[in-house]
Amino acid sequence: MPPKQQISKAAKAAAAMAGGKKSKKKWSKKSHKDKAAHAVILDQEKLDRILKEVPTYRYISVSVMVDRLKLGGSLARVALRDLEKRGIIKPVSKHSTQQIYTRAAAE
Question: Nearest 5°: CA angle at 66, between 74 and 69?
Fold first, then answer.
């Protein structure tokens, strides 16, 4: 084994200073879910779609309307109350946090 080479104190100090220049660890590397762009204003196109599609659903709730029609939750609640008033859907369970409806023509 050949003898080690002597390194000067200045070279050792430079090597020690250079060793700590590593980049900082990035903690968040997972993918993030995109923010949903749900409608918050009811225009005629959305109203027509609600009147056409929702009465065909067997299970109707706020979450179903948000998922399928890309509506905001408050808009879906208003639409459900309006559809019930028109007699298009009928309530199955009306709790303060979750209203469940079904189509009026169902047995």
Answer: 115
Sign of CA dihedral 93, 80, 36, 58: positive
What percentage of residues in the chain have a pLDDT greater than 90? 53
pTM above 0.85, yes or no: no
* pLDDT (average), residues 61-73: 93
- 8 Å CB contact between 35 and 75: no
> How far separated are the first and last CA of the chain, in Å rounded?
92
In one letter, which amino acid is 53? E
CB 102 within 8 A of CB 58: yes
**Complete edge-to-edge strand list for the sheet that includes strand 99-103:** 60-61, 99-103, 89-94
Contact (CB, 8 A) for 77 and 50 = no
